[in-house]
Amino acid sequence: RIPTKIYSNASLASIAVAKEISDLIRQRQEDGKHVVLGLATGSTPIKVYKELIRLHKEEGLSFSNVYSFNLDEYYPMQPDSIHSYVRFMEEQLFNHVDIPKGNYNIPNGTLPQEDIAAFCAEYEQKIEDLGGIDFQLLGIGGNGHIGFNEPGSLQNSKTRLITLDHVTRAAAAGEFQGIQKVPRKAITAGVSTIMKAERIVLMGLGEGKSKIVAAAVEGPITDQVPASYLQLHSNTMFVIDEPCSSELT
Ligand code: F6R
């Protein structure tokens, strides 16, 4: 069973997660060291990023020693597209804080397909060269995916090009004005890439995620619910709001 912290609402959950991240950044700054964050997109972390921006603007939190690696990007995808996760991260966080431009990394959705494997290997190498991910933030898909590791993803999977699940494309259909326009593929950090992080916090918000969160926390460890692999990680916590806790025993 994965340790789970329940907050009465999404704002309180998000503020708590932002506090953990900012404490880590500040601690490393005091020690004269950098910190490596693994970051997620989607609706779930938006309030965490808002709070981090507030901490930067109002409480002097600096991101000058922060490196980050995002979990995923659609493929193909141009960075200036409104659907791009590069654009998402710049609008939701990076443009509003003092992270150096070269310090954040997002999988490149513009490469020719034959160059993707080499890009993915470099992505993994870059993380390792910086000493690994200190803190990994995750959301969870309705089908149990973490990053875009869809059901069937193996525990030893690395950063790679994947085919998106129907469930995932259906969830994105609204933003893309129809499922037909949602890309069929994405580049995602692998299960093993995620599991190597020193600390993992998965956030689940809303009743819609309650069943899959219960399956991940209490159910069998199975490739059919990739988030259940997190039961094998010794420093993972789920941070959820009350509506999301309704299926936990
Ligand atoms: C996003 C990601 C995905 C999302 C998940 C939940 O970078 O890796 O796993 O975290 O699909 O998405 P939301 O938060 O929009 O419900």
Automatic annotation (TrEMBL):
Domain Glucosamine/galactosamine-6-phosphate isomerase: 14-235
Protein name per Swiss-Prot or TrEMBL: Glucosamine-6-phosphate deaminase
Covered range of the whole protein: 15 to 263 of 643
